[in-house]
Every structure is written in C-alpha cells, then in structure tokens.
Specification:
Elements (H helix, E strand, L loop, with lengths): L1 H5 L1 H27 L3 H18 L11 E2 L2 E2 H8 L2 H4 L1 H18 L8 H26 L8 H31 L5
Antiparallel strand pairs: 1-2
C-alpha cells in the first residue's frame, strides 16, 4: 500500500534530501559554536564537564555503568583531552552521518554498490572541508585560534559515522540478497 503511494525511489529521494538538510543544519550549528567568544565556549565546556563528571559517580544517563575494570572511563577520557575537544567527536559524528548518509542514498545511484565507495570518498572530502573550514574560521574569531589537534577528534567522529553508514549499507545489501533482490 505505502510502496504504491511513496515508491522506494521516492522514499530514498526524501531521505537523501533530509540528510542534505541535516548536513547543512549541523554545519550551521558548528558555525554558531565557532563564533562563540572564548568566555562563552569556556562556560559551555565547564557546564558540560560538570554534568558529565557528576554523572560519572557511578552511572551515566539511563543507568549505564561508566566504570570498566575498576577504572572510571570518563576520568580516563578526560585525562586524554578536555571536554571541549571530546565534544568534537559527537559534533562531527552528526555532520559525517548526514554527509555519508546522503552519499549512500544518492538517488542517481540506484543500487550500484561499486559507486558507493566513490560517493563515500566524496563525502569524506566534504567532511575534511567542513573541519578545515571550522578551524580556519576559528582563526578569525577574536580570542580563538586554529588548533590542529581538534582535527583528530573531528576525524574520530567522522570515522564512527562512516562505520555506521557502511554497516547499515552492508546489512541492507545482505537483506536484499537474501530476499532475492540482488545488489
């Protein structure tokens, strides 16, 4: 019934547009966060750190234990880098998820799995451009500076997003093969 109304190619096109809009929205949020004055970004980071470390007393949101092998995972992560740096991971995960999702859903692809690698490669270049733009933009905000170490945390977010999109695409392909739908 719904297939007749929306058709799988139409749903794919809608999902693709939503991914593109999500990517633009994520980029806009990153732009606004980069525009913050140093005292604003420090206050935001301190607020997040208080929330994260207060939750580290034994459980995180949802009652999930945050200790592993007797050590506090959050304390270990914060010993590597501050909250502001770690915030780049989820921020750029979202950006990457939308960009890689758009690449995987590109309407003109129509099941050509070999082209997926090329499309994901192009999305990766867009991710690199977003991160470089963010850092260059930061260099022009008074009190902020280009910080190449942030790029490492951006890359972690993008890598996680790429893993999610590739895993979903692989499961989708496997399901289609089992159903006799080919690639």
């Amino acid at each position: 019934m719904f297939r007749h109304l929306f058709g799988s190619s139409r749903l794919r096109r809608i999902a693709w547009v939503l991914c593109l809009l999500g990517a633009v929205g994520a980029f806009a949020i990153t732009f606004v966060l980069t525009e913050q004055a140093p005292q604003e970004t420090t206050a935001l980071s301190q607020s997040v750190e208080r929330i994260v470390t207060s939750g580290a007393a034994g459980t995180a949101a949802g009652g999930v234990a945050v200790t592993a092998g007797g050590g506090n995972v959050i304390a270990a992560l914060l010993s590597v880098a501050n909250v502001r740096r770690w915030a780049h991971v989820p921020e750029f995960f979202v950006q990457g998820l939308f960009l890689f999702g758009a690449a995987a859903l590109w309407p003109q692809a129509r099941g050509r799995a070999s082209g997926l690698r090329v499309r994901l490669g192009m999305a990766l270049l867009a991710c690199v451009a977003c991160s470089l733009f963010d850092q260059v933009h930061k260099a022009f905000v008074p009190g902020r500076e280009f910080d190449a170490r942030d790029l490492i945390f951006d890359a972690m977010g993008y890598a996680l997003a790429l893993l999610v999109v590739v895993a979903v695409a692989g499961v989708r392909r496997l399901c289609r093969r089992r159903a006799g739908g080919g690639e």
